[in-house]
Design a protein that fits this description.
The protein is an alpha+beta fold and 131 residues long. It has one domain. 54% of the residues lie in helices and 13% in strands. A 4-stranded mixed β-sheet has the order 2-1-3-4. Helix 1 links the parallel strand 1 and strand 2. The longest helix has 31 residues.
Amino acid sequence: MTQSTGTLTVFYDGACPLCSAEISVYRKSAGADGLSFVDVSTPSGSCQFPSVDKAAALARFHVLSADGTLSSGAEGFGRLWLALPGWRWLGRIVMMPGILQATEAVYRGFLLVRPALQRMAHAGSVSGSKS
């Protein structure tokens, strides 16, 4: 669901425990009230993201700037961080030429192991709820 209408719209996979946990941190950050957060794993969330199909939106982090610029991966995170005062320092670093490309390579590596990490996180939450 959308938190608020803002200058940056953050699209994330709410069905992913890792993604939800990370987005929760950003939502609690100063400046987050000026951003919109859309869970693309829900039917209403995917309708708000017409420029990329649902599978692509679930597979990779995306943000949409107020001017209509769509960014994904490391660049998307950089734009998100630039929009949050407490994270702006990290956004400035990530968006530097060379750093952005290196961070994107790390992000693509993370995407390869993300399914295994999701399974581990899900297994941990299931076993933790049985106690």
